[in-house]
């Protein structure tokens, strides 16, 4: 790395984090009054950083994604569409649905009704992560993760709920349809410098998020990992799920993922042992049982 | 046990601009953002566990009985990053806790801040929406 590059990387990382902050949302609103276009300025800053901090590469010339990555902070754990605070959300948030352009998930009517049912308090007991299962895909990708990148495989260690995905490039045949998994069967391929990961064989039992969005066992999830420079990466996923949606759709974070180690608080990692104190289940079961008793 | 039993609860009527963060489960399914409370009691124990920590405090009812409240916090990683340490929470210490009541009517609430009466030290317990910074998903704090 050239002298001074570290400073630029750190600056780019801070810009990316800031762009996803509530302060940035206010700034976006105020930029029009001042005649500035912060999106253009951020793009220029990213381009400059990219030129000065080249993407690290493996011996075969492919980008090396190895590192400790985290998404920029938004409430995607809860809801993917634009939302107000109130349904388990930290605050209001922008949509991360990049396509359709209106940011609204293209639900079939039955599925939209099912999502509304899931959003009742008494339905929360049905949600899978409450019971410390693997969150499923693409839900898992809203959490921080570590990538170890080898020539024949790409391993994603998810830091929350401790799942590991091994994405193979070796061309082995896909799993038979009879095998169904929480995290599905991921296969990797390259499109230029973009790593494309296609996942099928999901079990359809995982909620998409705490807001009850739906991913069925018919879903085909195509993720795209694309590094911008040594410390930032864009991630997006296109979901084709004909049982649930009227058309494929794409989710993308409003800012790139940032490689950790650049920020002061990244001092060490904590383990995440979900089962050890999960005392919330009983309270949600109380609501679930009360609703069932009332329905009888 | 019902919420009514714990008459020392002061319903503060504070309406925050946004609902607090859910976490490993939906906040709004388990708790009611329209029912903020302030509880005063003594620390019974602190459970430093995932996916959430839990602070248990004994609160006296008007007739002198003790009710143990179960107060959900962020995960230990989130608490640690916000400055919480084991020695901050000695058993028997008096605390004032701002929280949101559970919907199921038990002595359960989602803690926002914990203030130690002796020292005045205030600890942010994990629920966002109070003006405190929201940590990114996966950081074991407000979002998981």
Instruction: Tell the overall outline of chain B.
Output: globular
The count of strands of chain A amounts to: 11
**Span between N and C termini of chain B?**
30 Å
Overall average pLDDT of chain A: 82
Report the major sheet of chain B: 5 strands, mixed, barrel
User: Please, how many helices of chain B?
Assistant: 2
**Weakly predicted, low-confidence segments of chain A:** 1-9, 27-33
Tell me the greatest interface: A-B, 53 and 47 residues
Average of per-residue pLDDT values of chain B:
74
Oligomeric state of the chains in view: heterodimer
Total of helices of chain A: 5
Supply the helix-strand structural class of chain B: mainly beta
Helix content of chain B: under 10%
Give the C-level CATH assignment of chain B: Mainly Beta
Helix-strand sequence of chain B: EHEEEHEEE
What is the architecture of chain B at the second tier of CATH?
Answer: Beta Barrel
CATH superfamily of chain B: Nucleic acid-binding proteins
Give the termini separation of chain A.
68 Å
Q: What's the number of structural domains of chain B?
A: 1
In percent, how much strand structure appears in the residues of chain A?
15-25%
- Please write the string of helix (H) and strand (E) elements of chain A: HHHEEHEEEEEEEEEH
